[in-house]
Amino acid sequence: FELWSSVIRFDVKTAVETVLVHEVSEEGRGVEISPDGKWVAHPFVPKVPSPYQEPYYVAVSPLQENATPTVISGEDLTVADFKWAADNQNLYFLLHSFGDGKLVRIPRTGGDVTPVVEGPFMVQSFSLSPDGKTLAYTVSSPGHPSDLFVMDLAGGQTRQLTSFNQGWEERHAL
């Protein structure tokens, strides 16, 4: 028994379903439409006997019927989350591996991965401003519970917005 999800567009006015990409993954994870509405980024897991043994990739397809997906995340990248950049040319990926999590940028067409946020911690979640100039993200580590940061993407300046656990950390050395 195999269950593979497809990316489908449903027109609520006409009730017409259009399959955009066939059989992209074993589960229905989210898809992201590019800001210009021309591309769809979606999960992709190779069809193998046990897809749960394979990494979770991201593919990009043109937003058209029966499109062919292009996998843009590399074999060594297991993607936890992804979002489009405002420029329609890049995606931001949240990667988790061996207890660390980092945020990277990769071109829509694939290619070199550019680190955006990385360190000896876990980036847990992120959000991009609509104009694409600011990144908000949360990080934690075993010795430091979650806090919220913002980054100016043009200049790379980072600012910590919260210190939720500062008093606790001072009382409990980890």
List the helices and strands and how they pair.
Elements: E1 5-11, E2 16-25, E3 32-33, E4 39-44, E5 57-62, E6 70-71, E7 79-84, E8 90-97, E9 100-107, E10 114-117, E11 122-128, E12 134-141, E13 144-152, E14 158-160, H1 166-171
Antiparallel strand pairs: 1-2, 3-4, 4-5, 5-6, 7-8, 8-9, 9-10, 11-12, 12-13, 13-14
- Mean pLDDT, to the nearest integer, reads 82
Approximately how much helix is present in the residues? under 10%
Question: What's the number of extended β-strand segments?
Answer: 14
Order of helices and strands: EEEEEEEEEEEEEEH
Question: How are the strands of the largest sheet arranged?
Answer: 3-4-5-6
Shape: elongated
* Low-confidence spans: none
H/I helix tally? 1
How far apart the termini lie comes to 47 Å
Rounded radius of gyration (Å): 18 Å
How much of the sequence lies in strands comes to: over 45%
How does the major sheet shape up?
Answer: 4 strands, antiparallel
Structural class: mainly beta
Assembly category: single chain
Could you describe the 3D structure shown?
By secondary structure, the protein is mostly beta strands. 3% of the residues lie in helices and 49% in strands. The protein contains one helix and 14 strands. The protein has one helix at 166-171, and strands at residues 5-11, 16-25, 32-33, 39-44, 57-62, 70-71, 79-84, 90-97, 100-107, 114-117, 122-128, 134-141, 144-152, 158-160. Strands 3-4-5-6 form a four-stranded antiparallel sheet, with no helix packed on it. Strands 7-8-9-10 form a four-stranded antiparallel sheet, with no helix packed on it. It is elongated. The mean pLDDT is 82.
